[in-house]
Amino acid sequence: MSKISAPKGTRDILPSETAAWQYAERVFADVCGRFGYQEIRIPTFEQTELFQRGVGDTTDVVQKEMYTFEDKGGRSMTLRPEGTAGVVRSYLENGMASWPSPVRLFYNITAFRYEKMQKGRYREFHQFGCEAFGSAGPVVDAEMVSLLDLFFRELGLKETSLRINSIGCPTCRAEYNQKLKEYLKPHLDKLCDTCQTRYDKNPLRIIDCKEPGCRPYVQEAPALLDNLCPDCQAHFNGFCNNLDELGLKYTIDKGIVRGLDYYTRTVFEFVSEHVGTQGTICGGGRYDGLVAEMGGQPTPGIGFALGVERLLMELQQQQATMPDPAGITVYIAALGSGAAAEARRWTLRLRTLGVRAETDLLQRSLKAQLKYAGKLGVRYTVVIGEDEIKTGKIKLKDMRQHCEQEMSFEQAEQLLIEGDE
Ligand code: ATP
Ligand code: MG
């Protein structure tokens, strides 16, 4: 029979990699906790309408990349392409507006987007993210950046740069969009097809176009940052001041946009200095209009999402130290079938005490058992036979020091508990 392969754009994370994943997850949860963020877990799929409203009908994600299906009840469902929409839905559904403000949440999710497979671009991928609701000022924006900065530093990630921008509020953006359209009008026929539709629906998004044909016009276009209203300008200045106060370095990049109406003011990205277009590890921004758009009271909010695959790729490239997969501490070999039962009992006892222990499951010869233990790379081996059971004394062999020591079962337990810490 022919073999079935994993769907295009998905990948298995094998045991040799999971230690690094678990480590990144642990450090992220830990850093988030220090900043007062609590974990939220949201469903993998939601009603399609949530993303149409929450991510925005005019975005590439909604127009081209969603995994949408009809369930058996005839409802349109979509595998989440990102986390913010689901978190906002949950915020409203669970009355979090009455929780002490600001409400700070973090998540660790899989996300699904129907995209062209490339390095660092998958159809199922993982995101870490944070959302903070209820604080409009730029202090929380800078605090969020400092959380990311600390997370990267604790993982040993260097060579990432922070780019920031402001995309204003609906008032200054409406004026700017007019200006942008006037500027683009004479070049409209030279822009790509997608940008031609963006021109009417969401002109700001043209600034984000990566098509080589559009680049020259984009580069010359007026920037929203130069056209902010006084309130948005003050907010941006405040953000910069807060970053300076915390000693966080940044570059102002007028080309970063998030082309949704309810994204407002602060936007930022952490970009790797050596990966090309897939170099954005993390993107974030303020969405002061989103909660209201989803049916809640107007509530300011800000968040980011970080691509875990890209983060780990980057860590590997920068040769950051990551923990190795935890191995087995002790192998208990059995000599003879009577001893095998005792070996299994003692193995279970060690495991109960918290020790990583293994014993034979394949009725192998003593020689084969020890060969297997060698392949596992265990720190210690013990052989249990009739003699050991009779005398209550075993020889614990240290495979690293190449020496062995005779002791009671209890003494060995003590030593192994300590050695497994
Ligand atoms: P890009 O410009 O690379 O398509 P994006 O703007 O679509 O990114 P966001 O929606 O801001 O990405 O998602 C946040 C982060 O999630 C990205 O910075 C990236 O690290 C990661 N990410 C997004 N799409 C993918 C994907 N298809 N595969 C792997 N990681 C992804
Ligand atoms: Mg994308």
Notable traits:
421 residues, BirA Bifunctional Protein, domain 2, eight-stranded mixed sheet, five-stranded mixed sheet, 15 helices, 16 strands, binds magnesium ion
Secondary structure layout:
Layout: H1 15-34, E1 38-39, E2 45-47, H2 48-56, H3 60-64, E3 67-70, E4 76-79, H4 84-93, E5 103-112, E6 124-133, H5 138-155, E7 160-166, H6 170-184, H7 193-201, H8 215-220, H9 230-245, E8 251-252, E9 264-272, E10 280-286, H10 290-293, E11 301-307, H11 308-317, E12 330-334, H12 337-352, E13 357-359, H13 366-376, E14 380-384, H14 386-391, E15 393-398, E16 403-408, H15 409-419
Parallel strand pairs: 1-5, 7-8, 12-13, 12-14
Antiparallel strand pairs: 2-4, 3-4, 5-6, 6-11, 7-9, 9-10, 10-11, 14-15, 15-16
The structure holds adenosine-5'-triphosphate and magnesium ion.
The site of adenosine-5'-triphosphate (ATP) has 17 residues, from strand 6, strand 10, strand 11 and helix 11.
Quick synopsis:
The protein is 39% helix and 21% strand. It has 421 residues and is of the alpha+beta class. The longest helix has 20 residues.
Can you characterise this structure?
- With 421 residues, this protein is an alpha+beta fold.
- The protein has 2 domains: 15-169 and 229-317, 2-Layer Sandwich (BirA Bifunctional Protein, domain 2), CATH 3.30.930; 330-419, Anticodon-binding domain (Rossmann fold, 3-Layer(aba) Sandwich), CATH 3.40.50.
- Helices cover 39% and strands 21% of the residues.
- It contains 15 helices and 16 strands.
- An 8-stranded mixed beta sheet has the order 1-5-6-11-10-9-7-8. Strands 13-12-14-15-16 form a 5-stranded mixed beta sheet, sandwiched between helices.
- β15 and β16 (403-408) form a beta hairpin.
- α1 runs antiparallel to α5 (138-155).
- The chain is elongated and about 90 Å long.
- It binds adenosine-5'-triphosphate and magnesium ion.
- Adenosine-5'-triphosphate binds at residues 82, 113, 115, 120-122, 125, 127, 278, 280-283, 305, 307, 309-310.
